[in-house]
Amino acid sequence: MQWATTKERPVLQYFEKFVDPYTPYQETDHPPQRLWPFMREYARPFKKIFILTGLMSLVVAAIEIWLIFYMGRVVDILSTHTPDEVRGNYGLEFVAVVVFILLLRPLLQFIDVALLNNAILPNFGTMIRWRAHRHVLRQSVGWFENDFAGRIANRIMQTPPAAGDAVFQVFDAMTFSVAYFIGAGILLADSDPRLAIPLLLWLLLYAVLIRWTIKNVGPASKASSDARSEVTGRVVDSYSNIHSVKLFAHHDTEIEYAKEAIENTRKTFAREMRIFTKMDLGLVILNGLLIVGVVGWAVLLWMNGNATVGAVAAATALTLRLNAMTGWIMWALSTFFRSMGVVSEGMETIAQPVSLVDAPDAKELNLTAGEIAFHHLSHHYGKSTGGLSDVHLTLKPGEKIGLVGRSGAGKSTLVKLLLRFYDTESGDILIDGQSISKVTQDSLRAAIGMVQQDSALLHRSVRDNILYGRPDATEAEMISAAKRAAAEEFIHDLQDPQGRTGYDAHVGERGVKLSGGQRQRITLARVILKDAPILVLDEATSALDSEVEASIQETLYGMMEGKTVIAIAHRLSTIAHMDRIIVLDGGRIAEEGSHADLLARGGLYAAFWNRQSGGFLGTEEEAAE
Fold first, then answer.
1. Can you tell me whether residue 592 is helix, strand or coil?
2. Nearest to 366 by CA among 259, 271, 438
3. d(CA 526, CA 223)
4. What is the pTM of this model?
5. In which band, very low, low, confident or very high, does the pLDDT at 79 lie, cut at 50, 70 and 90?
6. SS3 for 431?
7. Is 471 helix (H, G, I), strand (E, B) or coil?
């Protein structure tokens, strides 16, 4: 058995390497929006393999028809000759047929199956998943914020196998069945042209049933696929926010929320299955007509002396074979269109245009000093309110500003626009005189280090998370960054369920296995390692207790040295030392100046400061008094 395995493997690997699923291709921001052009685009690297596989499917079907024809010939030979005559006149012919059946037929069948199972199916699905993932990752942050992560992932995972199933059915069933039906008609007509009449009538009725099935299965399958994706999205949403679910005791609420989508899935699937039940009933009736029509007519012709026993035997074998095949063919067609329905649903995600792209002539950002200029910046997320309105602000190279304002004042919007997570609706942002819309997004974000209030981590090791800041950093540089972020001590005590410890321990989805302060310190270590010339701190110490915050304040100040810094904070004491403080209110700059100047002015900032409790910004109602 081991010998067979080692001998077969290189042959199958030969077929598996016919197409490289990762072959370079021209990425497009606007993939085809219609189903067939979408499939053609992905099928382009497989064009030659598809043609060869189609031809082999025709050859295999022709052999199957020939075998039935030849069995009829054998019946005629045996019924009209003595054993000695058969041995003398047909012995060599029978030997040749035996050799063909035992040697050449398996070889041709093997090539047909290997092309489909080994050359196409593993690589076709892999290529779609790879390209779809690449395309989705190019979408903007705003695009991801408008959908469930679970639903996006579900479509990335569902679409490739569905497309593979569709291709499989084309070559395994459709091409084969078309050739088989044509061959059956020729075989029956060759025996007696009148035998082809019931077959043609049956094919006409069969085509009507197929058309009805296809018309109904496609939309029903898409509805089922949509419903399944909705279930996935809701379930993943609950799991991702399990702390909130438990904290607010909303177990039953989440069960009902999921049940609603699950019940909709059941109903859509039930509607889909009704179509198949009706199809099966129609098929049984049609196949009964086929058997009675073809076999009955063949027997009648034989009784009138117009057909041989071999012709009756061939017609009977062919009809029974068609009877067995029709259910398979109909199911294959249904599977094909059901799979195409899944692909169509997946296209709603993986074929969406990429709207936030680099300019055609975009260049790498040439950061020389670190000056940032916001010129009459306005952005309202396509609405009439919220966001920013006509913000005009310049940060000198190396200047450190604090950004203050009530919730919704526009602080996060300013930072998102700086990182070009969104394109500005009006105005421009310049870094060292270069519009960020004219430079590549990767070079822009490489120049900016950011510590966010939501310090989510990747479900990977601590080492991988810190090295995300600079993957080519040495182990010593990575450990140094962890020490500067006051993370070294707790990292050594980490151990995950798989027994990995220290820097090798995995932190769980979004870093859930760590405390908020621990996640924040690893995030700080990552940004320290990145060492970007522009630094954005969005509540960088919000998750830290006072003792840890005090221990890394010096590290934060060290990080700011020589950098242009924007720091968002509700704890005003953390930004009081900044060169300048900008107060945003209602999307506009309400005040700006040093901490002392703003206190002396007695405006919004002074009100915030005076109403601080433990260094946090007062409530909106208090500030408005």
1. strand
2. 438
3. 44
4. 0.74
5. confident
6. strand
7. coil
